[in-house]
Amino acid sequence: MRIITVSREFGSGGRELGKRIADILGFEYYDKEIVSRITGMSGIDEKEVERILESHPWINTRLSFNSSLSVDMATQVNHEELLRQQRFVIESIGRSGKDCVIVGRSADLLLKEYKPFNIFVCADMEHKMKRCMERAPEGEDFTMKELESSIKRIDKDRARRRNAISKLKWGDPKAYHIVVNTSGWEIKELAPVVAEYAKLWFERSKDLD
After folding, report:
1. What is the domain-level CATH number for residue 47?
2. Calpha distance 153→186 (Å, rounded)
3. What is the pTM of this model?
4. Count of Cβ atoms closer than 10 Å to residue 13 Cβ
5. How many domains, the chain?
6. CA-CA distance, 194 to 21, in Å (whole number)?
7. In degrees rounded to 5, what are phi and psi of residue 186?
8. Neighbours of 128 (CB within 10 A)
9. What angle do CA 43, 44, 47 make, to 5 degrees?
10. What is the span of the domain harbouring residue 61?
């Protein structure tokens, strides 16, 4: 069994890179599919599942006199329960024994025992903003300043989630087998190269076992 995990900065093209690598290697691909499984287990709407999993109780819980403590506590309970369900889904993917690519969700840490090939995808702010604008839903209205602020916030949240469960910081090259900077590149150009690198890494790892 060969597992590839993809951690990425928002707007860097990590999701697309992961999908293209999976297609090239003939691997299963897991991203939104994980959320769909959690939705089936929890009965919570898919968008709400994503929103809760992307949040941090220690950030989003509002303990002011004007807020509803019961609602905030419910959000935290949901967050913890959904995290457990997410872990269950990801671990079940590992137990399935299938070759696969998993995007995000700390899969590199949760499936560490399976010795996955871990990728971190990054890009400079200019290219991340460009990619986001090219893929924005029609009619979405935002300023460049708002977009940059949103990208920084999302990346900061991802870093906090990772750093809460690992000694190696999010994006630290030592935590991954390869760091891919997509600035100035088309993802379709990079995917075959990274896929071949991963393929060679698995072959070498097998020889070393």
Report:
1. 3.40.50.300
2. 25
3. 0.83
4. 26
5. 1
6. 7
7. -85, 135
8. 23
9. 140
10. 3-208
